[in-house]
Design goal:
The chain is an alpha/beta fold and 254 residues long. It has a 7-stranded parallel sheet, sandwiched between helices. The structure holds NADPH dihydro-nicotinamide-adenine-dinucleotide phosphate (NDP). NADPH dihydro-nicotinamide-adenine-dinucleotide phosphate (NDP) binds next to helix 1, helix 4 and helix 6.
């Protein structure tokens, strides 16, 4: 038995059209999975689907705002009717508004919490009946180094990412009897559109990350492929409720 084989598995990856999500989509597709790539930007999503199809894998684009419960329910229905089921859910979509607590508007707080945390609850809840009836499922939640640490400008973001770790534990304990494993992964600093903006917003961020990361480099999106396959496959069947750093040693370092 190949512990990492994902042939015949269907995966939803929210925000799978770019950045870390696309790195995870590539890993899952290479392991044989069929992928539903979920995003708001139609062109970006179609380009990602085209890339995955060129690898010889099956992929399907779904345009959805994952903060909208009705849209999430429709997305799950579309995936089941088009691809035949849901074995793996990667809650990856996310955003950030970098402001100190005293400068953050209530609407900005909700925007970040809804995109990063509430969306994971909505998507997980919508997928649960399908995974329960199959007596199997894998849910992967995207945390962050700000699940563990914080900064003056990570008010809503760190709150959402700390929440992802606890949401992971709550879902893991609730759904373990259904043979659904729920785990969180905590990326270190990865080169994406999000962190390109962070480097503009936060002076010296680039150097700070290099100094604190023992691997002495920023991560690239393909560094996220392996954890996706591991947490989505039979290799992790007795692992649930965890939070695994993928950070080049950042969280081990002072
Ligand atoms: P990107 O900006 O490249 O990716 C964000 C993704 O989320 C996009 O694909 C975007 O799709 C999608 N998205 C955002 N809002 C919504 C929404 N409302 N509905 C559907 N999709 C949405 O950045 P990253 O790849 O860096 O971020 C991906 C995840 O990784 C986030 O959760 C982020 O917090 C997390 N992360 C990133 C780190 C890093 O160093 N880069 C470190 C730790 C965690 P679209 O444009 O189509 O809306």
């Amino acid at each position: 038995m190949d512990l990492f084989d994902l042939s015949d598995k269907v995966a939803i990856v929210t925000g799978g059209n770019g950045g870390i999500g696309l790195g995870m989509v590539r890993g899952l597709a290479n392991a044989g999975a069929t992928i539903a790539i979920v995003g708001r930007n139609v062109e970006k999503t179609q380009a990602a689907v085209a890339e995955i199809k060129a690898l010889g894998a099956r992929a399907h684009a779904v345009t959805t705002d994952v903060t909208d419960a009705k849209a999430v329910a429709a997305m799950v229905e579309e995936v089941v009717s088009t691809l035949g089921g849901i074995d793996i859910l990667v809650n990856n979509a996310g955003t950030n508004i970098r402001k100190r607590p005293e400068d953050l508007a209530e609407a900005e707080w909700h925007q970040v919490i809804d995109t990063n945390l509430t969306s994971a609850f909505l998507c997980s809840k919508a997928c649960y009946p399908i995974m329960k009836s199959a007596s199997a499922g894998k849910i992967l939640n995207n945390g962050s180094m700000t699940s563990l640490f914080a900064s003056p400008w990570s008010t809503a973001y760190a709150s959402s990412k700390g929440g992802m770790v606890q949401l992971t534990k709550a879902l893991a304990t609730a759904w373990a009897p259904d043979n659904i494993q729920v785990n969180c992964f905590l990326p270190g600093w990865i080169n994406t559109d999000l962190t390109l903006q962070a480097r503009k917003d936060v002076p010296d961020l680039h150097e700070h990350v290099l100094k604190r990361t023992p691997a002495d480099r920023w991560g690239e999106i393909n560094d996220m492929s392996g954890i996706a396959v591991f947490l989505a496959s039979a290799a992790s069947d007795f692992i649930t409720g965890t939070a695994i750093p993928v950070d080049g040693g950042f969280s081990a370092s002072i």
